[in-house]
Amino acid sequence: MHRVRIGITGLAVVFLIVLFAAAIVGFHTKDRSEEANLASAANSTAPSGDPLAELGVAPGGTIGETSPAPPEPTQP
User: Which of 19, 62, 68, 75 has its C-alpha lying 20 to 30 A from 44's C-alpha?
Assistant: First the structure.
């Protein structure tokens, strides 16, 4: 029974340490993101259309763009 108690206590201590570290990191990340949002809002003049399209990762293509024809199947 003593080993079980020590094991559970150890797990509780590790859990509290991880919880405390996550709270500190989350707090600092939130502050940085708020500062970045304020700086971004001050620097932007007009809202952009589609951020994925600007990065070139949006699904689909642009209007008027055609996809290449699939290759013809070869007969053995």
Answer: 62
